[in-house]
């Protein structure tokens, strides 16, 4: 160790860096997976609630009695139902919110289009907090003396309700108003408005079961303005609510919203099974029937996490293989430095096992030191260190050193003689070539099988599908072996071409490259590391470009505003276009899940009603994909409204019609392919607003897009109180701040830095392994009279030739893997797009080859300076 510590220190450094990244990747990935699942549950909101519906036993009674203890009984039933939840589900949900709600009831006092949902809410800490701005809370309709009143099943009973300020404004109601209503079966219902309130905390989860209480929904259907809101019933008025509604018109439920931070990736599969068992449980008389969309939310989140973990496996496996190749090269350098002492030990009677053990122990000590330093560094940075199957892999470098030393000593002291017969020597050479060909064919076959597994299964993080995840690195290794096999022939052709040249530099470079430049391991290290570096850079760039494209398509421009119903918008677009920094703006109507039917097919589509000319100008002024066929929308043939269609079944284009927003069915004629509107997997239909309106369709805009550097500020300035403004920059920042995206980008950047370092170390070790023979060769050429400038060119050419071959081959292999394999890596799960992003290859992918060339220049200068220090007279006398 003391004699030549360089290779050993190099081994320790490589092991430490690799171990540090791999040990940190496990905990970071686990935490990111937990945060991603928590974020998915948090974004789902009330959709992910575990909902229990109670079985009412009085549905078919002929008479009904007012129960003054209705609220207490309901609270007791909720408490009992929660206690019966499976423990695995109970750990991830919060104490439930109790609700008793009616179906939407149509108000009969002021024309059609107004609906009211009566709701009683009770949270773990009591009813939701409100402050009355007029009137007061709902009170019992009768006094204590008539608390147990009995009524026939068809009797009408009045219940007092209170409205939020927004609901009262939307419906035009005030305290004291009597509300005659009817349900969906035209049965009468009566209510009295007791007061108007504002919520003390609108974000309180007690409001989640009935969001219409605070946020009424307004719109236009068939030219008629509609409004739907909720009315709050107090605990004191709950007995009246049970009497006021028909026996089957009241639904009592418990909403147990999940706690996002309690959801963990490691036990999410167990949680899915528990929710499935809960939903499949038989109904208990008087108990709750459970249902939830939490399992679907978890499945979606788990699929995204699994894909992201699979992509992380691709990067980590590539990094690990490249680290092993570098360690193998370092072990070979160590053995070459130890060759004299190893051979001397063998000649003095040392066994091959003793030689292998000595080299193994020497290297293993430094490997262990590197592992400990790497794990300690990961623990200091992340607070944890992951242990996995890769932990023992670095010790393969120590085993390689022992095996390589034993093989060297065995060959050097082999008593068998080389055959004198030329045919026998030729047979031995062909045998060696055949063995090499079989080895290369086996690696190529493994690469093909790995790529086939990737195409069939994709990347799956859970369970660690190393076969599919290893496709890029197998691709690189197979290509590098083919390059290694072809370099000797290429060097021979180069040597033959320079034999009769007048310049000596090219001939000597070709001769040296043929002799030493085709060494398999250094060229393999350089080629594979550059290929994986290129792949990692292209992966990072593709994901970032995909996020930008997906965010832009999702917003529809630099900014988008969703207009509140009934808002006047005739002057909104001209005002936006006149604002500074706005290049174009357009108003549109976007209806989702619109039924579309043809003679042979049916589907739901995303219908976009827009001014075709203005939309074409907006697309041309932005980075959104152009749509040159938009001009066809205003040139119809009279058979139907011209439409552009993207996606959907082929039969849908055969004379289909759409019906949106309660309007009449409008027949459409397909005249081209629609541009992408939003980032959706739904079929997209685009029609011209004026043409569609003349055909009877509803074309009132509900969305405004704007592009330009000042679009966001201009749209915010013009937006009304009920308008929702979405900005492209905010959407892109949110996508890039997602937990999985941050970890993957950080992992790709860290892996790229280490791969670049490994490539540089490969160049350095390649130069160091042949430093002695190269010095002797250049010394002879110098003694024979070659000028210094020519010698320096020979030195630089000898070092640069294999590096350039490996760098260019690695660049081509990395780009080829990116083009062929990115489609199977499910990158859209990370970018948030509906389809796979286009492959992006940035200019800075050339940084790797450029750094290697720079390393060759530095090494040439250093080695040339050292060689020049040897006196010419010493060289003439035969010295080194």
TrEMBL record:
InterPro entries documented for this protein: ABC3_permease_C, Macrolide_Exporter_MacB
Pfam family membership, one: FtsX
Localization: Cell membrane
Keyword Repeat set for record: no
Species, as recorded: Nocardioides conyzicola
Name under which the protein is recorded: ABC3 transporter permease C-terminal domain-containing protein
Membrane-spanning intervals of the chain: 314-335, 356-381, 387-407, 434-453, 473-495, 516-539, 743-768, 799-823, 843-862
Taxonomy of the source species: Bacteria, Bacillati, Actinomycetota, Actinomycetes, Propionibacteriales
Top-level taxon in the UniProt lineage: Bacteria
Keyword Transmembrane recorded: yes
């Amino acid at each position: 160790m003391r004699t030549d510590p360089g290779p050993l220190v190099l081994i320790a450094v490589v092991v430490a860096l690799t171990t540090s990244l791999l040990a940190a990747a496990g905990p970071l990935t686990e935490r990111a997976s937990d945060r991603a699942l928590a974020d998915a549950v948090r974004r789902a909101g009330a959709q992910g609630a575990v909902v229990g519906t109670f079985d009412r036993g009085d549905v078919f009674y002929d008479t009904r009695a007012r129960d003054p203890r209705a609220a207490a009984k309901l609270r007791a039933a909720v408490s009992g139902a929660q206690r019966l939840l499976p423990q695995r589900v109970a750990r991830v949900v919060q104490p439930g919110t109790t609700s008793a709600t009616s179906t939407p009831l149509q108000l009969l006092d002021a024309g059609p289009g107004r609906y009211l949902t009566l709701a009683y809410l009770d949270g773990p800490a009591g009813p939701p907090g409100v402050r009355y701005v007029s009137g007061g809370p709902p009170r019992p309709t009768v006094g204590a003396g008539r608390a147990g009143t009995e009524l026939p099943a068809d009797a009408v009973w009045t219940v007092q309700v209170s409205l939020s300020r927004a609901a009262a404004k939307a419906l035009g109601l005030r305290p004291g108003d009597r509300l005659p209503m009817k349900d969906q079966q035209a049965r009468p219902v009566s209510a009295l408005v007791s007061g108007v309130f504002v919520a003390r905390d609108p974000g309180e989860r007690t409001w989640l079961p009935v969001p219409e209480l605070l946020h009424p929904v307004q719109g236009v259907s068939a030219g008629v303005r509609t409004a739907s809101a909720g009315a709050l019933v107090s605990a004191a008025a709950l007995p009246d609510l049970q009497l006021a509604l028909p026996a089957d018109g009241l639904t009592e439920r418990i909403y147990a919203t999940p706690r996002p931070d309690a959801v963990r990736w490691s036990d999410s599969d167990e949680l899915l099974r528990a929710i499935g068992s809960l939903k499949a449980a038989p109904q208990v008389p008087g108990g709750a029937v459970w249902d939830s969309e939490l399992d679907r939310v978890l499945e979606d989140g788990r699929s995204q996490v699994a894909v992201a973990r699979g992509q992380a496996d691709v990067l980590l496996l590539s990094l690990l293989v490249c680290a092993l190749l570098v360690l193998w090269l370092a072990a070979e350098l160590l053995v070459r430095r130890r060759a004299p002492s190893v051979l001397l030990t063998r000649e003095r009677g040392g066994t091959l096992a003793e030689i292998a053990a000595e080299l193994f122990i020497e290297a293993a000590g430094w490997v262990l030191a590197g592992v400990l330093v790497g794990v300690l560094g990961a623990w200091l940075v992340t607070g944890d260190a992951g242990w996995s199957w890769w932990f023992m892999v670095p010790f393969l470098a120590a085993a390689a050193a022992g095996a390589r030393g034993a093989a060297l000593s065995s060959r050097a002291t082999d008593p068998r003689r080389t055959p004198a017969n030329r045919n026998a020597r030729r047979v031995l050479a062909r045998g060696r070539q055949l063995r090499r060909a079989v080895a290369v064919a086996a690696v190529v076959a493994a690469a093909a099988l790995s790529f086939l597994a990737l195409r069939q299964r994709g990347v799956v993080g859970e369970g660690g599908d190393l076969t599919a995840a290893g496709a890029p690195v197998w691709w690189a290794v197979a290509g590098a072996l083919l390059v290694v096999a072809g370099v000797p022939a290429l060097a021979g052709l180069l040597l033959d071409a320079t034999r009769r040249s007048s310049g000596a530099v090219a001939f000597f470079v070709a001769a040296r490259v043929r002799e030493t430049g085709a060494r398999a391991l250094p060229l393999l290290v350089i080629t594979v590391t550059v290929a994986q570096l290129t792949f990692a850079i292209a992966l990072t760039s593709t994901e970032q470009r995909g996020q930008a494209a997906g965010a832009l398509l999702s917003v529809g421009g630099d900014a988008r505003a969703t207009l509140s119903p009934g808002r006047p918008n005739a002057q909104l677009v001209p005002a936006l276009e006149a604002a500074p920094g706005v290049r174009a703006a357009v108003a549109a109507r976007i209806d989702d899940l619109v039924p579309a039917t043809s003679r042979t097919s049916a589907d739901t589509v995303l219908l976009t009603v827009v001014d075709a000319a203005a939309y074409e100008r907006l697309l041309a002024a932005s980075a959104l994909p152009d749509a040159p066929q938009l001009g066809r929308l205003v040139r119809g043939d009279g058979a139907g409204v011209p439409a552009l269609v993207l996606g959907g079944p082929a039969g849908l284009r055969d004379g289909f019609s759409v019906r949106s927003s309660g309007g009449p069915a409008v027949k459409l004629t397909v005249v081209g392919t629609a541009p992408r509107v939003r980032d959706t997997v739904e079929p997209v239909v685009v029609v011209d607003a004026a043409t569609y309106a003349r055909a009877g369709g509803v074309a009132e805009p509900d969305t405004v897009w704007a592009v330009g550097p000042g679009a966001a500020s201009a749209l915010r300035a013009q937006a009304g109180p009920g308008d929702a403004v979405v900005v492209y920059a905010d959407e892109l920042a949110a996508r890039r701040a997602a937990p999985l995206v941050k970890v993957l980008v950080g992992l790709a950047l860290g892996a790229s830095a280490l791969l670049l370092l490994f490539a540089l170390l490969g160049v350095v070790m390649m130069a160091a392994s042949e430093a002695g023979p190269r010095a002797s060769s250049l010394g002879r050429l110098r003694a024979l009279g070659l000028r210094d400038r020519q010698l320096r060119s020979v030195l630089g050419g000898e070092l640069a030739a294999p590096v350039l071959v490996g760098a260019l081959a690695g660049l081509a292999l990395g780009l080829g893997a990116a083009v062929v394999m990115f489609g199977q890596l499910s990158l859209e799960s990370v970018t948030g797009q509906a389809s796979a992003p286009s492959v992006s290859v940035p200019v800075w992918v050339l940084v790797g080859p450029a750094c290697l060339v720079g390393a060759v220049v530095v090494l040439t200068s250093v080695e040339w300076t050292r060689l020049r220090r040897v006196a010419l007279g010493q060289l003439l006398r035969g010295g080194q």
